[in-house]
Amino acid sequence: MTSILDWVLERAARVAPGQLGAALDELRPGLAEGFGGPFNGQERRLDAVRDMFAAIPFAVVVETGTFRATTTMLLRDLTAAPIVTVEVNPRYYYYARRRISQAQNISLLRGNSPGVLRSIAADAKWNCGPAFFYLDAHWRADLPLVAELTAIAQGWRSYVVLIDDFRVPDDPGYTYDDYGEYAGPGCYWARRAWRDQDGNVHYSRPRRFCN
Ligand SMILES: C[S@@+](CC[C@H](N)C(=O)[O-])C[C@H]1O[C@@H](n2cnc3c(N)ncnc32)[C@H](O)[C@@H]1O
User: What is the pLDDT of residues 23-64, one digit of tens each?
Assistant: First the structure.
């Protein structure tokens, strides 16, 4: 019975205008979990983020792809730095707006992430020190990643970028999305991080990988 109701609510939310769709989504509390919790429920990624926040005094946090604001709310607990999160879809935008309304110092912007990044790069509020970017605005065939990275590289001097979901070539347990032709050619450097029994974090030497 519940699943039939879920199906009906999902269908209705998809065709409803954004605000109504978001209100219908609120009838299903489980949706607040997003894709299995903050950072898709990937605990090692969360550990790595915690370590970065402990080591680097980020002045701002920027997320692209808010969805249910699941990771946004966790980021709020991890740091006191102002957070800005960007969502293009009206249904998710209005859902997230209600959810973050009780939280401190989170700005939700509606729009296409590369354009929003370019505009906030010119705003001293969001460009005033080391920035942490969580790039998660991937959805079906639309992959704004290259344009997002270009906007960041051109706009900020000091930053860390965490890309969701990125392939870790020697870790088959690390799931990722494959956008095929949309990924575009390119190379990147990556390091593996792991924790020893005493809780110390170690990093491998950087290795270069190409698509
Ligand atoms: C994988 S979900 C984000 C999950 C969320 N960050 C979390 O951790 O719970 C991807 C979101 O990105 C949004 N999105 C896709 N393309 C976008 C774009 N170009 N600009 C802004 N948001 C975008 C989608 O509407 C969707 O809500």
Answer: 999 999 999 999 889 998 888 888 889 999 999 999 999 999
Domain 39-184 has CATH 2.30.38.10: no
Can you give the pTM of this predicted structure? 0.87
Q: Tell me which residue has its CA closest to atom 27 in ligand 1.
A: 67
Domain ranges of the chain: 39-184
- The β-bridge partners of 60 are 131
Q: Is residue 148 within 6 Å of ligand 1 at its C-beta?
A: no
DSSP code per residue over the chain: -HHHHHHHHHHHHHHS-HHHHHHHHTT-GGGGGTTTSGGGG-HHHHHHHHHHHHHS--SEEEEE--TTSHHHHHHHHH--S-EEEEE--HHHHHHHHHHHTTSSSEEEEES-HHHHHHHHHT-TTTSSS-EEEEE---BTTB--HHHHHHHHHHH-SSEEEEETT---TT-TTS-----GGGG-S-EEEE--EEE-TTS-EEEPPPEEEE-
Distance 132 CA to ligand 1 centre (A): 17
